Amino acid sequence: FMPTRAEIRAQNAAAGFPEDVAYMTWFDAGVAAILQKLRDIGADDNTLVVLTSDHGEDLGERDLRGLGRHQHQLHDDLLHVPLVLHDPREAFPVRRVAAQVRLADLMPTLLELAGLEPPADVDGRSLLPLMRGTESGDRIAFAALSTADLRMAAIRTRDAKLIVQLPLPSQTSEGPRESLYDLRADPLEQRSLAQT
After folding, report:
1. Listed residue (57, 67, 60) closest to 27, CA to CA
2. In the predicted model, what is the mean pLDDT of residues 84-97?
3. Are 185 and 174 in contact (CB under 8 A)?
4. Mean pLDDT of 86-101
5. Burial 58-86 (b: 16+ CB within 10 A, else e)
6. What are the tens digits of pLDDT across the range 101-147?
7. Under a CB-based contact definition with an 8 Å cutoff, are residues 43 and 132 in contact?
8. What is the spatial distance between Cα 121 and Cα 154, in angstroms, rounded to a whole number?
9. Distance of CA 112 to CAs 101, 119, 142, 177, Å?
10. Which residue has better confidence, 161 or 7?
11. Which of 45, 101, 177, 180 makes the best surface tag, with the fewest CB within 10 Å?
12. 68: left (phi > 0), else alpha (psi -120 to 50), else beta?
């Protein structure tokens, strides 16, 4: 059905590609195999295909100790994820939607595509108006992270982002630490404007 990781690594090594390319090549091969299987069984003309991820990747932009970790910060390198939707039943323009969207918008979108009404209390909004070009506005995005040694929350617009690190119960004498970024001037979130 699809090549194994070992086969992909061997192919990449023979082609002179670095080891870290193997994972993406394996992912690409997996997507290609799924799409081919849909064609083989005649389901490609009525199957909605969604590609996304639960997190981005820390490549050590702020601190090399974070390289490859996923639960230690709320910067865009971990929050920005791919989202590709293909519905062969509707001719959406093939394009990148420039508006900021959220994964919370995915469930109402899928329900609407299935002809179902999303629950009234759902946090997200359907992406179909953006996909059809009848809406262009950004959506405010929220993120939160809670582990045994870290509690953080963030709010993001197209132009700004606020990240608040909350003290743990054992750190009650400390107040929250805030980072505020002007994303127009500092899209990589390198210089906080907050004084805390």
Report:
1. 57
2. 82
3. no
4. 82
5. beeeeeeebeeeeebbbbbbbbeeebebe
6. 899 999 999 999 999 999 999 989 999 998 888 888 888 999 998 88
7. no
8. 21
9. 16, 11, 23, 40
10. 161
11. 45
12. left
